[in-house]
């Protein structure tokens, strides 16, 4: 298959990852019991940090939304790279490789700190990027 197809698949997978992260991770309810108690403790304890009063819950929510923003931006970039790959995919190899390594690191991070679902998405995205790299050839007029 052509690199454009793999980049479009990576784009869609990244967007799905963003949506699921937002629904389950950012706005999902903590599980009853210890999870709920931990979330309540994070919400109720405020402290002054760098001139503003925040809670750990606000840091948790803000970081979660930041990941959502970056995943969505990456989905858009992968779609744009797919368009660019039609004319000269070989020149995009370093960019695709950077994202591929990043997604492999993201998968390791998810393995250590989270759970299997994001690992599957991150690995599949890295795989699509790797296949796009392998399928990219120099431009015909180069």
In short:
It is built from 5 helices and 2 strands. The protein has 142 residues and is mainly alpha-helical. A hairpin with a 2-residue loop joins strand 1 and strand 2.
Mean of pLDDT = 95
Structural class, from secondary structure content? mainly alpha
Distance between the termini: 21 Å
Trace the largest sheet across and list its strands.
1-2
Instruction: Indicate the percent of residues in helices.
Output: over 70%
Question: What general form does the structure show?
Answer: elongated
Query: What composes the largest sheet?
Result: 2 strands, antiparallel
Report the uncertain regions: none
Percentage of β-strand residues: 5-15%
What is the CA-based Rg, rounded? 19 Å
Topology:
Layout: H1 3-26, H2 34-44, E1 46-49, E2 52-55, H3 56-88, H4 93-113, H5 116-135
Antiparallel strand pairs: 1-2
Helix pairs in contact: 1-3, 1-5, 4-5
């Amino acid at each position: 298959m052509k690199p454009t197809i793999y980049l479009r698949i990576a784009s869609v997978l990244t967007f799905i990852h963003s949506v699921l992260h937002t629904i389950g991770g950012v706005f999902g309810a903590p599980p009853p019991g210890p999870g709920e108690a931990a979330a309540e403790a994070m919400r109720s304890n405020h402290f002054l940090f760098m001139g503003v009063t925040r809670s750990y819950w606000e840091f948790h929510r803000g970081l979660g939304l930041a990941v959502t923003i970056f995943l969505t931006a990456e989905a858009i970039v992968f779609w744009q790279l797919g368009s660019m790959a039609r004319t000269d995919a070989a020149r995009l190899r370093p960019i695709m490789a950077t994202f591929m390594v990043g997604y492999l690191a993201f998968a390791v991070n998810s393995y250590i700190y989270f759970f299997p679902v994001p690992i599957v998405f991150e690995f599949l995205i890295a795989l699509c990027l790797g296949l796009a790299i392998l399928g990219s050839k120099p431009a015909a007029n180069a």
